[in-house]
Amino acid sequence: MEPLTTITWDERKEKLKQQFPDITEEDLHYNDGKEAVMIERLAHKLGKTSAELRYIIHAVT
Questions:
Q1: How far apart are CA 52 and CA 6, in angstroms?
Q2: Of 8, 20, 50, 54, whose CB is crowded by the most CB atoms within 10 A?
Q3: Is 18 inside a domain boundary?
Q4: Cα distances (Å, whole numbers) of residue 7 to 3, 39, 44, 51
Q5: Where are the alpha helices (DSSP H) in 1-61?
Q6: How far is CA 52 from CA 7, 40, 42, in A?
Q7: Model confidence over 46-59: pLDDT tens digits?
Q8: Distance between CA atoms of 35 and 24, rounded to whole angstroms?
Q9: What whole-number distance in Å separates Cα of residue 20 and Cα of residue 54?
Q10: Are 48 and 56 in contact (CB under 8 A)?
């Protein structure tokens, strides 16, 4: 899977916060090369698998 880009990430995270109101800005904090850490943190918080969460993130348009 290709990494999320900083340009589209800002738009995606705003839509994710609308879709999942319990998500905080800190939950969505993205550092280059640390995507897996963020995915695991969000998956745990939302009760999803990493694969499910990756699908949700990439499906947000």
A1: 21
A2: 54
A3: yes
A4: 12, 18, 25, 22
A5: 6-19, 35-46, 50-59
A6: 22, 11, 11
A7: 999 999 999 998 88
A8: 16
A9: 14
A10: yes
CA distance 11 to 1: 19
Q: Are 37 and 47 in contact (CB under 8 A)?
A: no
pLDDT of residue 1 exceeding 90: no
Residues in the chain: 61
Residues 3-45 pLDDT 10s: 655 557 888 889 999 999 999 999 998 888 888 999 999 999 9
Type of residue at 48: K
Estimate to the nearest angstrom the gap between the alpha carbon of 17 and the chain centroid: 9
Q: What one-character DSSP code corresponds to residue 33?
A: T
Model-wide pTM > 0.85: no
Q: Total domain count for the chain?
A: 1
